[in-house]
Write a structure and sequence with these properties.
Length: 488
């Protein structure tokens, strides 16, 4: 983010509200994060990145409609803003509109084919659509007819769903219908609430009444029931009960065998599982990634060194995976503990790559929770282990940002310049932009306004080449402020 200058009065800056919102989001405090992003938008209405950030919070809170509104607002001036496209797809997916979500996942993938998020979105939307109509192997499609039948079938399916939730009185001792059992499994504790609401509908005197705002009690009750039914359908389509039960049984059987009898090719099994764990985390499914990693950890710990010669290295990798998943879930203390275990195993086995990875992650945890000095110490220990130019550009930039947070501007400028040199060596536009902004911010703090303007101008040129509109707008604003200070 970029400095906006000091404001008069008790209000914070746009940048401060954004940073606060990001931190609260990572901690899982989505209501407070939403408030911070709303405060930021009150200062810069329509700011696209902030709208996307607030939309993510609404998704986490289950308010898919508000999430969709923010996502669409971020696309108002630029229909190809890929972050907005992705967030719109996510909101539609959460609403259960899998077909429309698939359209926007495809649109985003066409614009940014290198981003894994869109590929994974396409996969999960296709899977949800498939689940909503049953297993493909049980459906025989024919190439005759026209689309009229398709449109007609949608109406029939909707009517069937409405009819299917009209409850018939059940005789004492009569077995609960399968459809009702499914709803009970999906809704859990909410199922009793739904039953209570249906009983209220039978009270004719009650439903004729109105609340203070003039809304009918009957409409309120029916609206609540409709919402619960919609959620039931969504959860059933996303992963039907029969599929969950089948998958759970299969997984239990597979891991039971894995604990007692290793697979024929343990190394390949581990690599495949690690790839699945990483894919789940990249898709934002931290809970799923964490569960898979813990299950694999339990299996590997039950194997002998003869079965898996690099057992300690694999366990260290799994500690890293678990730590990263816990970070995404906002459980920083537990994440730090697992990354430290990864570091300990790396030092025991003299595994330099694993040591570098662990130091990287430990530093990220410290930086995330605001312990910038500890982050610097850990990352500076990592510096001698870094070989690639890309990793140097990233690492030097992060250390520089920590020094900037600590108001140690000379050190921040030094690392910012090192990051820029590394990015220039590999001609990486993204890190050239990031490093230029960091150096510009530091020069501004040091009072070197002309130098700050030069670096902001370079960052602006890079943002234009990369067609990064959000970065371009923020840099232009910071550049105007820097130029004003030059003329003062």
């Amino acid at each position: 983010m970029f400095e906006n200058g000091e404001e008069q009065g008790p209000k914070s800056t746009f940048t401060t509200y954004m940073a606060e919102g990001d931190q609260l989001f990572h901690k899982g405090e989505y209501v407070k994060a939403t408030e911070s992003f709303s405060a930021a938008l009150s200062l810069q209405p329509g700011e696209k990145t902030c709208l996307v950030a607030r939309s993510k919070c609404y998704v986490k809170l289950g308010d898919a409609e508000s999430a969709l509104n923010d996502a669409e607002a971020s696309l108002k001036d630029n229909k190809d803003f890929f972050k907005g496209l992705y967030q719109k797809a996510e909101a539609l997916y959460t609403m259960g509109d899998f077909e429309f979500a698939l359209v926007y996942y495809h649109r985003g993938h066409k614009l940014r084919p290198e981003l894994q998020e869109f590929r994974l979105g396409i996969q999960k939307a296709q899977e949800a659509i498939g689940n909503s109509v049953g297993s493909p192997s049980s459906v025989k499609l024919e190439t005759k007819g026209d689309l009229a039948y398709f449109h007609k079938s949608i109406g029939v399916r909707q009517k069937h769903f409405i009819d299917s939730h009209k409850k018939e009185p059940r005789q004492h001792g009569q077995k609960m219908p399968k459809r009702e059992r499914t709803a009970k499994q999906l809704l859990g504790e909410l199922y009793r609430d739904r039953e209570y609401l249906e009983k209220l509908l039978q009270d004719e005197d009650l439903i004729k009444g109105k609340i203070r705002t003039g809304e009918r009690v009957q409409d309120l009750i029916e609206g609540c029931i409709s919402y619960l039914d919609t959620r039931t359908e969504f959860w059933q389509q996303q992963k039907p009960i029969y599929a969950r039960q089948r998958d759970r049984k299969l997984m239990q059987q597979q891991w039971s065998r894995a604990l007692h009898k290793p697979p024929s090719d343990p190394t390949r099994h581990v690599l495949t599982s690690l790839e699945e764990i990483d894919t789940a985390l990249s898709a934002g499914k931290a809970e799923s990634s964490l569960k898979k990693a813990r299950e694999l950890m339990k299996a590997v710990q039950g194997w002998t060194d003869g079965v898996l010669p690099n057992k300690k290295e694999v366990i260290g990798n799994l500690h890293s995976c678990i730590g990263n998943a816990l970070m995404d879930l906002g459980k920083m203390d537990k994440a730090l503990n697992h990354h430290k275990k990864d570091l300990e195993l790396a030092k025991q086995g003299d595994l330099m790559d694993s040591k570098s990875r662990a130091l990287d992650n430990i530093g990220r945890v410290y930086a995330r929770i605001g312990k910038f000095q500890q982050a610097i110490e850990v990352w500076e220990e990592k510096v001698p282990l870094v070989c690639s130019g890309l990793e140097k550009a990233w690492l030097f930039h992060e250390i520089g940002c920590c020094y900037l947070e600590l108001k140690r501007y000379i050190e921040a400028r030094d690392y910012g310049s090192r990051s820029l040199a590394a990015a220039d060596d590999i001609r990486d536009g993204k890190w050239q932009l990031n490093a230029s902004v960091l150096v510009a911010q530091v020069e501004l703090k040091l009072g070197n306004n002309k130098a700050s303007v030069l670096h902001f101008e370079r960052a602006l040129d890079r943002a234009k080449l990369m067609h990064d509109d959000s970065a371009r707008e923020a840099i232009q604003k910071a550049l105007r402020e820097a130029r004003q200070k030059v003329t003062q």
